[in-house]
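User: Hey, my collaborator sent me this sequence without any context and asked if I could get a structure. I don't really work with proteins. Can you help?
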Amino acid sequence: METKDKVLQIILFELLFSNPQNRDYADGLTAVELSRKYNIKIDQVKKRLKILQEKGIVRSIGASPKFWIFDEYNFQKIDQDDPIHYLLCNTEDIDFDKFFEY
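Assistant: No problem. I've predicted the 3D structure and written it out in structure-token form, which is a compact way to encode the shape of the chain:
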């Protein structure tokens, strides 16, 4: 995994700041929603979601559609040397206005 994967970083922050009141489904976000919102190919979104799931940062619910949510408990246990931690801390080119409605 690259230490500066923009697609992974966008998906990570989208799930981190996802609010049940602002989602189409209260259960979580789907890969299709993420793909459409950021104009990223669906296979790339699914690949990044799988990486995050293997790290324990996100978990999936259901099968069709599969909903993805951020796992705050496992996020707390992530090692500081992990590349995912680097992506979360290196936010210089992240537009946080995408994730919040004022």
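In plain terms: Residues 6-92 form a domain with the Arc Repressor Mutant, subunit A fold (CATH 1.10.10.10). You can pass these tokens on to your collaborator as they are.
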